[in-house]
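Section 5: illustrative case.
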């Protein structure tokens, strides 16, 4: 009794399924049933149904062929084409495959399911034959053709950038950072490296040049014309150049305190160091603290510089004194 009930249920289910799917048909056809190894084979699959039926059309791509366990290689597939006519819907798609072995093959039926995962249609199997290329054994042997380079166009460039674009971008950023750090490092290293100063011995004595430049500065009357900062800049520069030429000290590269320390190492008289220090202090106050001295103070700064040059001038007596005492260098006492 139980066995009979199961048979009745199966017959009822089968007849119900057939009545539900009687308006759905699936067909498949080839553009040819005879190809040569390496040729493309086009398979067109069509499904006819009504508007009230929902069909899951399979995506016929490389994975689809793997699921069917076929020996074919996928090339491409067209988009699904939909045609509506008299409440009938026709869905079609073209699949292109290729076969690299000769022989007879069968493309398996393609199943179609509804949204409830029930099989509602199935296409017909397709039979075709793949033949080899006929070889003319009487013909002479030919050289193997060289490898052809595939064209590299915008599409290939887009695919390449899509695959490696992020890696290329990160590499460029990393190269940019490393380049920036290297440039900055070498710039700082060059800035920190002490500049080699080549002392050029002037043709004239240092004090002669300095006194002449001081006289020219006095004739310009800069502070009288309101150019106080320019006046002190030129005054301190004249004295710095004199110190460089007189004692081969890189005074143009030093601040005031460094110059004074270098003069002490050259054994310049302490009184003269104090004198030139007063002039440097006044010049620094004008240039950096915007100090506005009185006219008498302008004269005083000029006299400090001039007296320093005159009192430390390298005269014949000082040369003889240096020859007798090479460790003593400086000008005569006032």
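Designed sequence:
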């Amino acid at each position: 009794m139980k066995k009979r009930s199961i048979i009745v249920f199966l017959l009822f289910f089968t007849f119900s399924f057939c009545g539900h799917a009687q308006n759905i048909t699936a067909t498949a056809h080839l553009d040819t049933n005879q190809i040569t190894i390496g040729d493309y084979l086009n398979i067109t699959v069509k499904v006819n149904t009504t508007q009230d039926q929902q069909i899951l059309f399979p995506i016929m791509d490389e994975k689809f062929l793997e699921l069917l366990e076929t020996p074919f290689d996928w090339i491409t597939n067209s988009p699904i084409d939909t045609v509506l006519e008299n409440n009938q819907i026709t869905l079609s798609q073209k699949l292109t495959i290729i076969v690299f072995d000769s022989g007879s093959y069968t493309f398996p039926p393609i199943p179609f399911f509804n949204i409830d995962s029930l099989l509602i249609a199935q296409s017909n199997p397709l039979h075709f034959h793949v033949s080899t290329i006929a070889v003319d054994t009487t013909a002479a042997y030919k050289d193997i053709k060289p490898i052809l380079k595939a064209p590299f166009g915008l599409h290939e460039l887009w695919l390449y950038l899509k695959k490696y674009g992020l890696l290329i971008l990160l590499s460029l950023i990393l190269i940019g950072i490393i380049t920036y750090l290297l440039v900055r490092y070498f710039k700082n290293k060059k800035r920190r490296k002490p500049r080699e100063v080549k002392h050029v011995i002037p043709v004239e004595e240092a004090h002669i040049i300095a006194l002449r430049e001081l006289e020219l500065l006095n004739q310009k009357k800069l502070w009288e014309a309101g150019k106080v900062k320019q006046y002190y800049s030129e005054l301190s520069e004249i004295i710095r150049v004199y110190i460089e030429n007189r004692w081969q000290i890189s005074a143009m590269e030093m601040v005031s305190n460094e110059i004074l320390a270098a003069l002490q190492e050259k054994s310049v008289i302490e009184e003269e160091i104090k004198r030139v220090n007063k002039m440097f202090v006044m010049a620094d106050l004008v240039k950096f603290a915007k100090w506005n001295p009185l006219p008498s103070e302008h004269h005083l700064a000029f006299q400090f510089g001039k007296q320093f040059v005159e009192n430390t001038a390298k005269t014949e007596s000082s040369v003889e004194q240096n020859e007798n005492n090479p460790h003593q260098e400086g000008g005569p006492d006032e």
